[in-house]
Please model this.
Amino acid sequence: MAVTVRIPPALRSLTEGSDEVSVDGATVRDAIEALEAAHPGVKERVMSDEGKVLRFVNLFVGEEDIRMLDGLDTELKDGDDLSIIPAIAGG
Amino acid sequence: MTLADSSVLLVGAGGLGCPAGRALAQAGVGRLIVADDDTVEGTNLHRQILFTEADLGSPKADVAAERLVALGASQAEARRTRFLPETAAALLDGVDLVIEGSDNFPSKFVVADACALHGVPVVQAGAVRWGGWALAVAASGRGASHRTCLRCVFEDVPSGPALSCELAGVVGPVVGVLGALQAKLALRLLAGEDGGTLYSYDGRRDRLRATRPSPRTDCPHALGTIDDLERIEYVPSSASA
Model:
């Protein structure tokens, strides 16, 4: 499945400044792995060593929080948007 | 309750609190309370729009309160203090809504927890460099009546690589947009509307996305497991769920 991953400003140093990256993946986990293969370093900003989503990162497929779907096993369709929203604290 | 009868607490008179406070003062919120224990520094001026060079070294809370009255608030009070577990109850006394614009995660979670415990709506936000987020949280209860809160979305004080303004800097107009958004969300909550929408702003691409995270069933406020702020450790925790 070809999906678009929306990269937040805080992670764009790892994607050569790109705010969107197209990857193939049948699930959210696959998409993150594909993103890591193309742009090493992204995965550790999103997932723990144990393979779980970091507590202070939110992943949305379209408008849906993956925690309310099947987490990293959430299936993706062609054309889906996967958004990464990390917690940031400045003010 | 009319806006003129409303009391709003600004936690932090920084890049978010200044524009949010200004917008609320000019919208007609009757009483604004500014809690901040810092003084105005030169590096603040590009984004903290209530201050000028003449204010350098002065307490932010005092100067902000004075400016908010000049802008139209009928009452503005300064509290030269941080929002801490031990100061939370006094600061929330008589307050109808909180604007949280602190610059660190522990403060954001203290405010989130205190507002949940005291049943006070809160609008929280954070920004670094060109991006940020904002979340309006309606007053809610425990169990099935719990509404989406900061702990539903970001769970706990981050450890590791989460970004802060202090480490990465922030673009002045980006916090201006998010502070104004906080004020707008506050007006809607004060009008009795629901919260729960998480806004994500990208100032480089001019994109504002809205998502609606559901309340987490294992959120400590849904479960009712947080009942004493002074027993919570607001320090970076284990990074994974």
